[in-house]
Amino acid sequence: MRILFLAHRLPFPPNKGDKIRSYWELRALSGRHEVDLFCFYDDPSDAQYIEKIREYCSSCYAEKLSPFWARIRALVAALRGKAFSLGYFYSPKMDRAIRQAVSAKSYDMVFVFCSAMAPYVENMNGCPRVLDMVDVDSLKWEQYGRRSRAPFSWFWSLEARRLAKFEKRTTEGFTATLLCTSAEAEALRAHCPSPKIGTWEHPLDLDYFDPGKVQVTAEVAKWQPYVIFTGSMDYFPNVDGVLHFYRDVLPLVRAQVPNVRFVVAGRNPAPALRKLTSDPSIVVTGSVPDIRPYLRGAVMAVVPLRVAQGVQNKLIEAMAMGLPVASSKLAAAALPESLASLLIVEDDQQVVAERIVKVLREGHSVSGEAQRHAVVNYYDAARMGRQLEEILMHPDELPGSRAQSRTPAPTTNATTQPRNSETEHSEFQVTGNATPGSK
Length: 439
Fold this sequence. Notes:
Number of helices: 18
Strand order of the largest sheet: 3-2-1-4-5-6-7
Strand content: 5-15%
Mean pLDDT: 87
Low-confidence stretches: 402-435
Shape: globular
């Protein structure tokens, strides 16, 4: 087949949640089909990878996204009564390039990664259109509204309502819409009842996240014992989660284990996080070339998110590395019971502090080997590439589109660039410096 593939960010390097998923999809599809890629890149350093991504495409159009002009377009969209996150990723140049390609070539399939790219082909007819929405953005903005103060709170809530309408229209118009978990699919069906909604779960490179292949560096060893949080540290849910843990949970832990440190590993730490380094018990790494030594050296990982949508890669990566994980109920909600049952899932700050102290003193009740084994069993239970191929061949027979059980996603053993700490849905700062596109 000849496939038109649209993505809101260049799918390389696969160093954070949205790019890992879109890269895996692009690589899987290009193995059997002719793929034309149209995408943006907002990180200037990503320009060096455009030639690399051409290895997976028949052609690649990658347009630099100016954050300044993107914000202007987002503001104009908001003033016109539209979702500003859609305006952020609208470009007349991109629109023309896609239209020219559609006129010049006969595509058998359109594959859209991220709902922000759907408007470019919303009115296109003549071939199946599959949207990988990943998670339900309108619910994320709704959570932002609840966690923010005015005027941001009402603005995010307005964005949630506008996006919900767009999601409903797009779901009805596209041939199929994919979500990363059955929970996300059910959430979308709550306001978009449709048989055209199904699931295709995140891949996980289990060969890469293998604790037996990683050594703890001398720099990391000097921080021990420590608990760790990983992710893009300019992303509001991560910043909020870290500050919540530092203020409300860590003091309770340190009262009983005074020598424990808290390591925050991830790119672009927000100013509020950089200020934490005045406390000698806090380490804020910034971007790291390889997150695995930091996970390997930790006693446990913490995921105290109070705003969360979809699968949290940091959870399954820590579990694959054999780490005990303390998670909020919201962050753990997307995991299957077979994995969630191995976590410390708790929102009460006193209780979670007590559970962390117990792990620091006695170890976790579930061994690292047993935890990794459970992750391997879950992610090795199906062939994800085959499932994606089936979706393309039969988009009207989506996995999870009816009352079906979750279809596990297998490991991907592809060779990729080393992962770093940006393994999260990325970068919307709900601090006034807004950059949409949280896939």
